[in-house]
Amino acid sequence: MRTIRVNDEIELRELSTEHVLPIFTTIDSQREYLREWLPFVDYTKSPADTEQFVNSVMKKAELDGELSAAIFYNEEFAGLIGFKDTDMLNKCTEIGYWLSYNFQHKGIITTCCKKLIDDAFTKLGINRIQIKVAKNNRKSIRIPERLGFTYEGTEREGELLVSGFTDINVYSLVKSDKIVNFQDNYALKPFLDEMAEKYNNICFIENDPISIPHRYVKQQDIEIAGFFAAVLAWGQRKIIIKKCKELMQLMDDSPYDFIVHHTGKDLKQIDSFKHRTFNSIDLLYFIASLKHHYKNNASLESAFIPPGFDGTIEAALNHFRKYFFCLQHDSRTQKHIASPDRKSACKRLNMFLRWMVRNDDNGVDFGIWKQLKSANLICPIDVHVNRVARYFRLIDRKQTDWQTAVQLTNRLKEFDMNDPVKYDFALFGFGVEYKDIDS
User: Fold this and answer.
1) Quick one: 168 and 214 in the same domain?
2) Based on the domain organization, do 161 and 252 belong to the same domain?
3) Do residues 289 and 325 touch, judged by C-beta distance below 8 A?
4) N or C, which end of the chain has less CB nearby within 10 Å?
5) Residues 207 and 314 in one domain
6) What is the residue-level pLDDT of the chain in tens, covering all 439 positions?
7) 185 in a domain, yes or no?
8) By the 8 A CB rule, do 67 and 83 touch?
């Protein structure tokens, strides 16, 4: 028997013969209340009638897997809910439900519907769900309305109740509609998990700046190429990748060797490099600072680790900026390295840290740094992430600054406290695919 834990109070248990008695007892004790909108009540005269119904449902479930479930609220039987008239050829189904009078006004049916809708869209391959409600049953009508269903029309005299024929309102939800419903945070975690899985794979690499460090195998080459790719990551991705490839070619496609062993003649060949406001003055300092670091360190990670490090990314980024600009430099170059203490969201550096620190089996992020932890990373906020996060109400601050990045990350930790930044893939990828989504 399948069971679905909806929340701490509600559990759905696949209908079985053990539910015959609580179903009949509830119907029998609440006939006047239930019969107004449920025509089967007058035909349910004994437990044998309920048993016949349950057996028919169980038989159908064996044939097509269609779920019908008893609702239990704090271990007490509360009602029934399930799919009906499922058509897998056309990827559509209907949700039906009824609830005992004793459990009204607790949001039980709405909560259960959310769970079934999520399972239908993400696990069962359903594209369209409908709910039918008697036209004058205002309490029940509020459920599809609350869930963001669209009213499609009315089936004239579509059902025979004790009071006579009644019109039936038809409401529908299609898979693309769930974009709207997520504004109420409905099923957001399963949706973000689905989107993260969709975009966090090697197909993502080719058209993203992370493709630049993926050209290399040596750790220091990956670090340097990734660092420059992140620093230069503003504007159109196609142009970013083109300029990064140009820079790597100027470094003879051996960035670490170039940084450590370059000569004055080598530096002349990069004098013409420019990407937006990042010019040769900035590039020459970056090369000098990186050379200074690698003279005494095997990895760039140590540049982010301050004395008495508390593990936070805020401390890491504040330290890195001070450390990176420890040599004499033109003040204009400082604008290319952000830090939390300057109120910046630090999008590019947070993206770089994601690349270096996150470690999974999907082949996108490298996971070559071990002192910084995935659980502490802060989600990068670019224009796509910002727009989608606001649409889903994951952030509500007017400005997009460090505190906004922290707010977003804290919300994402509610979905995965050990790896919140994996949802960067979901928010960014979804934003690129659905450019019309607006906050």
Assistant:
1) no
2) no
3) yes
4) N
5) yes
6) 789 998 889 999 999 999 999 999 999 999 999 999 999 999 999 999 999 999 999 998 888 888 999 999 999 999 999 999 999 999 999 999 999 999 998 889 988 998 999 889 888 889 999 999 999 999 899 898 888 889 999 999 999 999 999 999 999 999 877 655 554 454 688 788 888 998 999 999 999 999 999 999 999 999 999 999 999 999 999 999 999 999 999 999 999 999 999 999 999 989 899 999 999 999 999 999 999 999 999 999 999 999 999 999 999 999 999 999 999 999 999 999 999 999 999 999 999 999 999 999 899 999 999 999 999 999 999 999 999 999 888 998 989 999 999 999 999 998 999 999 999 999 999 888 877 666 4
7) no
8) yes
Q: CATH code at 151?
A: 3.40.630.30
Listed residues 178, 210, 242: the one ending a domain: 178
Question: Residue 12: enclosing H or E segment and its boundaries?
Answer: strand 10-14
Indicate whether 166 and 257 sit together in one domain: no
How many other CB atoms are there within 10 angstroms of residue 28's CB atom? Answer: 15
Dihedral of CA atoms 423, 424, 425, 430 in degrees, nearest 10, equals: 90
- Whether 28 is covered by a domain: the verdict is yes
Phi, psi of 226 (to 5 degrees): -65, -40
Q: Residue 241 sits in which domain range?
A: 196-433
Domain count, the chain: 2
367: Cα within 13 Å, side-chain hemisphere: 13
pTM of the model: 0.63
Identify the residue whose tokens are 């989600």. 379
Collect all residues with Cβ–Cβ distance below 8 Å to 133 and sequence separation of at least 6: 140, 141, 143, 144, 168, 169, 171
Place of tokens 């601050």: 397
Q: Looking at the structure, do residues 273 and 240 belong to the same domain, yes or no?
A: yes
| Residue 276 and residue 235 in contact, taking contact as beta carbons nearer than 8 Å | yes
90 lies in the same domain as 166: yes
Measured between alpha carbons, how far is 145 from 148 in angstroms, rounded to an integer?
Answer: 5
Q: Is residue 190 part of a domain?
A: no
Pair (98, 223) in one structural domain: no
Let me know if residue 438 belongs to a domain: no
Contact predicate 213/222, CB 8 Å = yes
Q: Which helix (H) or strand (E) holds 409?
A: helix 402-413
Judgement on whether residues 171 and 275 belong to the same structural domain of the protein: no
Neighbouring C-beta atoms of residue 32, cutoff 10 Å: 9
Of 178, 210, 234, the position where a domain reaches its end is 178
